[in-house]
Specification:
Blueprint: H1 24-53, H2 60-74, H3 79-89, H4 91-100, H5 106-110, H6 114-137, H7 142-155, H8 157-167, H9 171-191, H10 195-198, H11 203-213, H12 217-224, H13 229-244, H14 246-256, H15 275-278, H16 281-294, H17 300-322, H18 327-358
């Protein structure tokens, strides 16, 4: 059996004991308030980055989980905070995933041509398979391996957050995967432009490479804007195709989830998942909203507020996840996870370069 290398945490879902006998809504307020305070601090820090550097190198989403981890390491939340933290880490995160669908339009994606679309889909699938294999060979638990693979191959933190509820990942797995991919996400933004002079890539080729490998859409912008407008446009388009893969990948892992081994003991007997397990409600909502947006049924003035709300809720959820991680234990097991994430990302970059050459992208 693979060794359990996951960092010890205090999962928010497990922190429900000892709460007061007040109404459910009132019991949520202290925890949500704590997460909101961390969110405000993270967003203020991102705003400062934007004013100083022009764009954020470390997004509020990443800052929120890092601040949450720091708070959790220095202080164990009182039981009255725990219900609200759990609610923020799960229910608010699911609402955020639904609202993200409003930012996607299928029309621009279909217009990019079948060869590139098929290549992006193939790169995502191969990237996930290779990453899971690498992580398992390095001894990572199955669920963390899946989280790392989806984060690398699709859209970083958002993919990790969306896949986690489907496979039954614990908050400590989610936070650990995000913490390690976040570091590499920043390094990618800073280092990927070196491919232009070192590999002699055109602006178009670099845009495809950035869209296939950089984690978050804002990070794609940060990695491509210094190169050219063409790189930014191509990178954003390719990135949106990767994001659109999130729905099918989540559905696929919902089928696989019952067969995943438990953290301890042998794998459970295969079971036939019910409809709510097969297609979680928030993924149906995500796809429905994306379809409505593509059909023009979501008015343009509503898109920006919905996307902004989704972003705030996601940051708030990441603060909650960070509050479940004790970094003192994380530091003792981080080397193997870091190696797995780095190797997985290297494979994704290699697959992307092969796709660029195979399609003859000039």
């Amino acid at each position: 059996m693979s060794p359990d290398v996951r960092p010890h945490t205090v999962p928010p879902a497990a922190l429900s004991g000892g709460e007061s006998r007040s109404s459910p809504g009132a019991s949520l307020l202290p925890g949500i308030g704590l997460c909101a305070a961390i969110t405000a601090l993270a967003m203020a820090a991102q705003g400062l980055e934007e004013r100083v550097a022009g764009h954020p190198y470390v997004e509020a989403l990443v800052l929120a989980i890092l601040i949450g981890i720091a708070v959790r390491t220095a202080w164990t939340p009182h039981p009255r905070f725990r219900t609200g933290i759990a609610f923020s880490a799960k229910q608010l995160l699911e609402v955020a995933v639904v609202l993200l669908g409003a930012s996607l339009s299928l029309g621009a994606i279909l217009a990019s041509g079948p060869a590139l679309l098929a290549g992006i889909v193939g790169t995502v699938v191969l990237g996930i398979a290779a990453s899971v294999t690498i992580c398992r060979l390095l001894g990572l638990p199955a669920r963390m391996a899946i989280l790392v693979a989806c984060g690398n191959a699709i859209c970083g933190n958002s993919a990790i957050a969306a896949v986690a509820p489907v496979i039954g990942a614990e908050p400590k797995d989610i936070a650990a995967a995000i913490a390690f991919t976040a570091v590499l996400g920043v390094l990618m933004v800073l280092g990927l432009p070196l491919f232009v002079p070192l590999a002699g890539m055109s602006d178009n080729q670099y845009g495809v490479l950035a869209g296939l490998t950089v984690y978050a859409v804002p990070q794609v912008l940060a990695a491509t804007v210094p190169v050219s407008l063409l790189s930014t446009q191509v990178g954003t388009l390719v990135k949106l195709v990767r994001v659109l893969m999130l729905g099918p990948v989540v559905v696929a892992f919902s089928l696989i989830a019952p067969r995943l081994p438990q953290a301890e003991g042998p794998a459970p007997a295969p079971t036939r998942p019910g409809l709510t397990k097969l297609v979680p409600w928030f993924i149906l909502g995500f796809l429905a909203l994306a379809t409505l947006r593509s059909l023009g049924l979501v008015p343009d003035p509503a898109v920006k507020p919905l996307t902004q709300l989704a972003g705030v809720l996601t940051v708030l959820s990441m603060a909650a996840l960070g509050l479940g991680v004790d970094v003192r234990v994380l530091a003792r097991v981080g080397g193997r996870v870091t190696l797995a994430v780095t190797a997985s990302l290297a494979v994704l970059v290699a697959l992307s370069l092969v796709l660029i050459r195979a399609l003859g992208i000039a």
